[in-house]
Amino acid sequence: MIGTDFTDEEQHLLAQARELVPALSQRAAATNAARDVLPETVAEFHRTSILRIIQPRRFGGLQLRFSLFSQIVEELTAGCASSGWVYAVLGEHQWLLSSYPLQAQIDVWGDNPHAVASSSLAPRATAERTAGGWRLSGSFPFSSGSSHAQWAIIGAFLDRPRDPAAIAYLLVPFAEIEIIDDWHVLGLAGTGSRTLKLRDVFVPEHRCVMLADLLAGTVPGAEVHADYPLVRTPRGLMVNYSLPPVAIALGNRALQIALATLRGKVSRGVNPLAASEFVQMTVAEAAAAIDAATLTMHSGRARAEALIAKQEPIPQEYVLRTRRDMTCAQHQAQQAVEKLIEICGAQSVYDSDPLAQIRRDILTVLTHNIASRQAAMGAWGRLALSPSSP
């Protein structure tokens, strides 16, 4: 069973998260209507300390295992996908913040150990060099949880536009950011993933970390947190177990809803659907795909965490294979949801139908770069087909 090897402290945090699920479920409609996670939900994330799970101990965090954080993403998604998504973003960014130089972490957590950060990581503008740092202007969309964050992590090119080697993540306080209320979308409507507007903002030198260092696990924060192996872990490995669990948890939710629906549904008032061999086969195929996706996530997460604990170099091929497998798992879950909707009938055309909501949410998840088949499969394929590959 998941989580059976957790410590008593970790089991307590997992239980705290599970206790939130009924309330998240009750608030789901209001969350989507507000186009943002409700303040009381974020307050509960703070009250239960689940936002501090992978925050470093030096700055008031719990510095526990990534697998606990990742499993809580699954648990919360069972109640509300938007709430699970925002928790994943704000919680995982505690790891990202721990990668910055010491002074940047003091800026964020020194006076407020409960501070969290949203982000817009795709580089959409170029930061210009100035004395002591950088100046940045531009619009940066898709910042999930932005109304509940104190800081934003902004992707930008440093001086050299469109140069992958110049991509950096710059840290900006929300006091210097305008939030544009433009989040009117297909799914994950309650994530409040609004656009951030920056106008000639000055970013001090120390509030910068290079994407290349994050991918290599050679970030400045590694010297700040010598006792925290996660900070030295290539970002491309464990990030696969932050947002992707939302898609797979949605697949599991859809399966439970479909089974409950089909057991009592009669086609045209005559034929019990549960007696149909086609329905039985389709349900089994969808369940097998969802189970396979879930197993891929759980087993891969455990292996990755074991590698981190060894504190040995993690091969690039393993990082890319993990991205490949978790991308495939998310699409498996989405395809299974479509099969289930097909056999459950026309009810799913209603906005209020729970399977319709899951369909909208999972389709929106798959637009994120972390689910991009082109990015994931292409990267692994290039490595596998290179002349130097074993």
Write up this protein.
It is a single chain. The chain is of the alpha+beta class and 390 residues long. The chain folds into three domains: 8-112, Butyryl-Coa Dehydrogenase, subunit A, domain 1; 117-224, Butyryl-CoA Dehydrogenase, subunit A, domain 2; 235-385, Butyryl-CoA Dehydrogenase, subunit A, domain 3 (Up-down Bundle). Helices cover 50% and strands 14% of the residues. The protein has 13 helices and ten strands. The strands form two sheets. Strands 1, 2, 3, 4, 5, 6, 7 and 8 form an eight-stranded mixed β-sheet that branches.
Instruction: Tell me, briefly, the overall form.
Output: globular
Order of helices and strands: HHHHHEEEEEEEEHHHHEEHHHH
**Helicity range of the residues?**
40-55%
The CATH architecture classification of the largest domain is: Up-down Bundle
What is Rg?
21 Å
How many domain units? 3
Q: Per CATH, what is the topology of the largest domain?
A: Butyryl-CoA Dehydrogenase, subunit A, domain 3
Give me the CATH superfamily of the largest domain: Butyryl-CoA Dehydrogenase, subunit A, domain 3
Mean of pLDDT: 96
Describe the sheet with the most strands.
8 strands, mixed
**CATH level 1 name of the largest domain:** Mainly Alpha
Unreliable spans are none
The portion of residues forming beta strands comes to 5-15%
